[in-house]
Amino acid sequence: MAKIIGGITTSHIPAIGIAMERGLENSDYWRDFFAGYPPLREWLNEQQPDIAIVFYNDHGLEMFLDKKPTFAIGCAPRYENADEGWGIATIPPVTGETELSWHIVNELVENDFDPTVCQDIKVDHGLTVPLSLMYPGHQYQHLKVIPVCINCERHPMPKPSRCFALGQAIGRAVASFAGEQKVVVFGTGGLSHQLDGERAGFINADFDNDCMDKLVSDPQALTQYSNDDLIEIAGAQGVELNMWIAMRGCLLGKVTEAQRNYVAPISNTGAGMQLLLND
């Protein structure tokens, strides 16, 4: 059967991509943030996963306010990145995966989830920045990617407990897939941040570190929050924690933490990173 070997959590701040393009990783502002990623890259190079399932949120590139699925899964052989309005540089397309992705879709529907199935979507910085962080120089095309998009922008949004259950269902689907594929799961975004309004710049570092602790030892505790709780405690965009919670739901084995880094503020965000091993 296919096996999920681990999970990775990471910020997907668009400024990260710009910093990498401009070679600013060792500047005073960015040094502590980027220092956390070499061990992750070494682990990925050692393990050589075949497939990555990436939980991300679309920031208006493909899924705007007029059409906003709660959960969407890509089943395409290829995903293009596109300009989100900032004049971003063109980067190589992301390689898709079709067999496992369709298996996951079928298993989800059989288990009372109803995801939107996407066979032609562009992916934004929520997905491409994490891949670029793990594979500098955009050397990610060997990795087959299954995008799983969660609505974190427009109310009503799925609550943490539902996102965790989605991850559990995907974890079971992977375990039931015939083959020897090694799978890694990414939870992207967050942690605490608010980019607009009266609380713009709000960060709750204590909450962020507590969430990273609970992702290892007690993920069920995080499912007790409502989205209103997350907005109050972690800022308007703190609901991106739901992608981390979904990732953690996929890890059905014994989970141990191998790496962690946390830096705040980075682009008005509490930027966390973890590597969780799934035994």
Return the string of H and E elements: EHHHEEEEHEEHEHEHHHHEE
Which CATH class is shown?
A: Alpha Beta
**Could you estimate the helical fraction of the residues in percent?**
25-40%
Cα(first) to Cα(last) distance is: 14 Å
What is the number of beta strands? 11
Give the overall shape, derived from the CA principal axes. Answer: globular
The CATH homologous superfamily is termed: LigB-like
Strand count, sense and barrel status of the largest sheet are:
8 strands, mixed
Question: Over the alpha carbons, how many angstroms does the gyration radius reach?
Answer: 17 Å
How many domain regions? 1
List unreliable stretches of 5+ residues. none
Beta percentage is: 15-25%
Q: Which structural class matches the secondary elements? A: alpha/beta
DSSP summary: helix tally? 10
Under the CATH scheme, the architecture is 3-Layer(aba) Sandwich
Strands of the widest sheet, in order across it, are 6-3-8-2-9-1-11-10
Calculate the mean pLDDT score and round it.
Answer: 95
CATH topology: Protocatechuate 4,5-dioxygenase, Chain B
Characterise the protein shown here.
The strands form 2 sheets. Strands 6-3-8-2-9-1-11-10 form an 8-stranded mixed sheet, sandwiched between helices. The chain is globular and about 45 Å long. 43% of the residues are buried. The two termini are 14 Å apart. The chain is built from 10 helices and 11 strands. Strand 10 and strand 11 form a beta hairpin. With 279 residues, it is an alpha/beta fold. It comes from Zobellella iuensis. InterPro entries: Xdiol_dOase_suB. It holds the Pfam family LigB. This is Extradiol ring-cleavage dioxygenase class III enzyme subunit B domain-containing protein.
